Amino acid sequence: xxxxxxxxxxxxxxxxxxxxxxxxxxxxxxxxxxxxxxxxxxxxxxxxxxxxxxxxxxxxxxxxxxxxxxxxxxxxxxxxxxxxxxxxxxxxxxxxxxxxxxxxxxxxxxxxxxxxxxxxxxxxxxxxxxxxxxxxxxxxxxxxxxxxxxxxxxxxxxxxxxxxxxxxxxxxxxxxxxxxxxxxxxxxxxxxxxxxxxxxxxxxxxxxxxxxxxxxxxxxxxxxxxxxxxxxxxxxxxxxxxxxxxxxxxxxxxxxxxxxxxxxxxxxxxxxxxxxxxxxxxxxxxxxxxxxxxxxxxxxxxxxxxxxxxxxxxxxxxxxxxxxxxxxxxxxxxxxxxxxxxxxxxxxxxxxxxxxxxxxxxxxxxxxxxxxxxxxxxxxxx
Length: 382
Known about the structure:
Layout: E1 5-11, E2 15-16, H1 26-41, E3 50-54, H2 72-79, E4 88-91, H3 97-110, E5 116-124, H4 142-148, H5 155-166, H6 170-189, H7 215-219, E6 240-249, H8 251-256, E7 263-272, H9 281-293, E8 302-305, H10 311-320, H11 333-336, H12 340-358, E9 362-369, E10 373-381
Helix pairs in contact: 1-2, 3-12, 5-10, 9-10
């Protein structure tokens, strides 16, 4: 019986907007992790049968131009110096794009369509600003506006709606944000991230961690989504640059080629919920993943819930009854950053290495996505 195992997981440091990675083209950023993945996992890139790459803003440097029709995934393969015979595709499930890439890669090897697939993603939000792919256009049409009574779907507004629904105070959100920075700083100082990160030039560490932030500083920030709101830039994910990649194969193929599996893709699901509040689907996706896996929330040793906004993991905790000490133990996107198309693979890379370092058997990753969707993935350490 075929399975899907991950034999390599690497990422770049996450760069601040207009920071140390801003001068690196997204194709070159992608190529860096592809080359590192090959070197660290030990496979021949000629054996890769497909590359599934996540990217949200597929425009400009992250898309194709007239007369130059290829996608950023294919550009990554060629920039990495991999054989021209290696194909690639690029997908967009918003913030979960590279987590979805992992799901598709696992499904591909499980079904026998391929033996070795690379999944990952990139986003250079410094070079290709968030929302630039819409270019002022209406992406919804009249039928959606009529159905929901609005033509404005805004995640920040959704975060304020979540905070109101679950009764989260400004103080609670700021405390959560402060804890995220503290956890990430502690992990960085201990060298926890070193095993998963491949340097990009002089940039060797995640740039977004704010060691000097305080509750007073967070409390002074404006609430841009609602005049009397509770969500600020400090309790939201950072705009960032980065790339990450994972190699997926079967146990049999790995053994035959001398590769060492890190973890098995145990369960992979996707769910959807209200697109107006937009951020609640990780709760449904988690329930679906647990039902399908046969596991309980208490059997999961670590939970990675993307910190798009602080209300997201806090509401997830409230609804699942999960152990707060197992949630985002190394910090999350509030501290580390959120390079959209890369984040799913970045989070999975971090979680896998944390599981390996601490001997945790099961890990669960989930993240909210534009349109009210969410992926959830359960992996089992091998």
